[in-house]
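User: I'm writing a short report section on ligand binding and want a predicted complex to refer to. Could you take this sequence and MTE and write out the structure as tokens? A short remark afterwards would be nice.
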Amino acid sequence: MTVHRRGWLKGAGASLAGLWLAACDQLNRSKAVHDTLAGAEGLTRRAQRLIVPRTALAKEFAEADISPDFRANGTTRPGEPEYRALAAAGFADWRLVVDGLVEHPMSLSLAELRAMPARTQITRHDCVEGWSSIGKWTGARLGPLLDRAGLKPDARYLVFHCADNLGGDATGQYYESIDLIDAFHPQTILAYDMNGRPLPVAHGAPLRLRVERQLGYKHAKYVMRIEAVEDFAHIGRGKGGFWEDRAGYAWYAGI
Ligand SMILES: Nc1nc2c(c(=O)[nH]1)N[C@H]1C(S)=C(S)[C@@H](COP(=O)(O)O)O[C@H]1N2
Ligand SMILES: [Mo]
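Assistant: Sure. The structure tokens for the complex follow:
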């Protein structure tokens, strides 16, 4: 199911893609398939935990390894009027909202984010579609930011709400979620610079998540809001992310 995503997106009016969409919808509705996916995911997660601890660092590379042409994928230019207005003003009026199960809800400007504890890392981005690119990312570390917001005891996940509606319907807003292990991982950053320059629109300007131990689709671009939640069943279609909802991708996409 998962391998047909490109066709699904590209050919959303074409009949073959339509058939695939119908087939996937059917499969997603089937309890047996659902249980199999859930079971496989549990197994993958447990196996991964035995082989590589979740706290291990992702490999970092040298300047010379940086891809001259880092590929852009998914949304590359959000068309939403609110986003276009923010982009037109150079994101001067943009704010990152941090709310949900936090003691101190925040609304942060880019300047404020740039003043927070930061990290620069050169890492390889692996997309589930089978391509990789290496880039240098600089951003605010999520852990210290969450410390400042003060997570309430029942907060278990962070949900990243994005500016782009990729699905084109009521549940089509791109979003992703991670658990607290990844949230506090030292390489998990909210990146505002890429290869030493402000993050380009194609790669998620003005802010995107880097969660280096997981596959590309977890790295939410165009992040507008971070919501701390106890569970994500009430968000989108309930599976914790845009592609998790639509294509049955694993919620934990460890690499
Ligand atoms: N908001 C948003 N975030 C997103 C996507 C998207 O379409 N919209 N695509 C995801 C996928 S599948 C990948 S591989 C990466 C692509 O990031 P890049 O464009 O910097 O290569 O972003 C991820 N985050
Ligand atoms: Mo991807």
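A remark for your report: The chain has a mean pLDDT of 87. Helices lie at 5-10, 15-29, 31-51, 81-88, 110-114, 142-149, 180-183, 242-247.
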